[in-house]
Amino acid sequence: MSDDTSIEELVIKEEEKIAESDQGLKAAKKESLKLPVILLGAVIYSVGMNCFLRPMNLYSGGMMGFAQLFEDLLLKAGLSFGGVHLSGILYYLMNIPAIIIALKKMRRRFIIKTVFAVTAITVLLTMIPIPTAPILEDTLANVMIAGLICGAGIGIILWVGACDGGMNIIGMLIVSLKGKGSVGLTSLAVNIVLYTIMLFLFDIPTVIYSLIYSVFNSIAADRIHTQNINSQFMIITKLSDTKEMEVEVMGRLNRGMTEVDASGNFSGDAVKIFLVFISKYEANRLRAIIRSYDPNAFIVETEGVRIDGNFLKKLT
Question: Could you give all domains of the chain from N- to C-terminal order, each with its CATH number?
Fold first, then answer.
C-alpha cells in the first residue's frame, strides 16, 4: 500500500469493491435468507394480536387500530363477511399509500421485504382464529403480554431491514431523514393522538388498556430493533500501522473514526485510541474487523448512548 495514497481514496476504493461484490445473485441470495425471519416475525405479531388483544375488544395503534375500528363499524352496521376477519385486509389496503411514499425515499430491497411482511401479516391475521374469550383472566396481564409479543414480532421484522407497514414506515422515513428519534417513539406519539380521538368513541378503560398495549409494544420493538440503539466503541491498539484497518471500517461500515495517539501509563508503550459511533446492529461486524487486524486490541462498548450532530442512522 502506497503511503501517499490518502485514507479518503482508499475508502472510496473499498466501497467500490464492496458494491461490486454485493451485486447480482450474491446480494439476492443474502436478502432471500431474511424472508423466513420476516415470516417468523409476522407469525409472532399475528398470534399476539389475534390471541391476546382482539379477544378483549381492544385496539392496536396506528393503521392497524384504524383497520380494527373500520371492521367493527362495518359489523355494527350489519354487514357480514362469512366469519372472515377484515382487519388484515383493510390494513393491507391502507398500507398501499405509505409504501408508495417509501418508494421515493427507501431502498428497493427494503420495499420488497416490507411488501412481503405486510402480505404475510394480512394472510395470518385473516387465518388465525380469534378466541371467544381472553386466554388469561386478568385484563392487564393480557394487555402486557399482547404488547410484548406483538412488539417482539415487529422488532424482528425491523431487525432484518424490513417493516411491518403502517406508521412504522412513516417512522422510519422520519428517523432516516432527521437522524434522531426512534420508530417506536414515533408510533407512540401518533397513537396518543389516535387514542385521544377514541376517547370520544369508546369508554375510558378501553382506551387506557389500548394505550398500555401500545407502550409495551413500542418498548419491545425498540429493544429488538438494534439498528435503533446507538453504541460507542473505544478501541485501544498497539499496532503501529492501522491504515488498512481504518480503511476497512470506514469502507465497509461507512462510519468515521476519531484517532488519538497515546501511551500506556505503566508500560510507556505507544498506543492508538479510536472512537467509533455505530448502531448496536453493526457492533459484531466492527468487532470482527478489529480482531482480524489486532486480536489483542482492547475494545470498550457503551450501549444506548445519546448522539446529537451529524450521525447517520441506518434503519434498513
Answer: 34-227 (no CATH), 229-303 (3.30.70.120)
